[in-house]
Amino acid sequence: MLETISREVNNAWLAGIIEGEGTFMAWFYKTKPERRGQHQLVTKISIVNNDAVILRKATEILSWNKIGYFYCLTKRKNKNHNNTLCVVVQGKGRVKNLINSIKPYLSGKLRQAEMMLNIINRREEMTHSYKRGQRIIDDEELLKFTKALKEMKHSLPVDPSETKRRANYPLSWKFEDIVRTA
């Protein structure tokens, strides 16, 4: 019982980190000619931060959930900026497991998580009904889902009335509250 509560608390913490520091990505890339130049679908969730303590806790939770990950380091050209470290979960199975672990605790990125699941599920359907000569890059539904995910990353914040969580009073979204003039 205590382990279940602890797992849920940790998954909620990880969802919060992904809400603030995470990115959902899906794209196609063309393989090398020796692999017949086929297109592959890449699904990825990354967490980018400079705080090693946060990233270490995130990787501990991923390991506890048996979700594979890797690190990447982005070196900044500008000496005034810190290098950034990221933790990456890549691959349909790993990404799906991560989303299923944190989905109950997502709000702002819930739509992105659901779209990523649509992408993964569509790709899995194609695997089972794959016809010789069929290319994943030609699948209209898969293209629609990947485009929608990309557009969600660049859209405005979600309207508070669309979230699952309820507050005692609605937030005020007045322009004056967001932009302060000197």
Walk me through the structure.
The structure is a single chain. With 182 residues, the chain is α+β, with helices and mostly antiparallel strands. It has a single domain (2-178), classed as Roll (Endonuclease I-creI). 45% of the residues lie in helices and 18% in strands. The protein contains 6 helices and 4 strands. The chain has a 4-stranded antiparallel beta sheet with strand order 1-2-4-3. A hairpin with an 8-residue loop joins β1 (22-30) and β2. α1 packs across α2 and α3 runs antiparallel to α4. It is globular and about 50 Å long.
Concise overview:
The chain has 6 helices and 4 strands. It is α+β, with helices and mostly antiparallel strands and 182 residues long. The radius of gyration is 19 Å and the shape is globular.
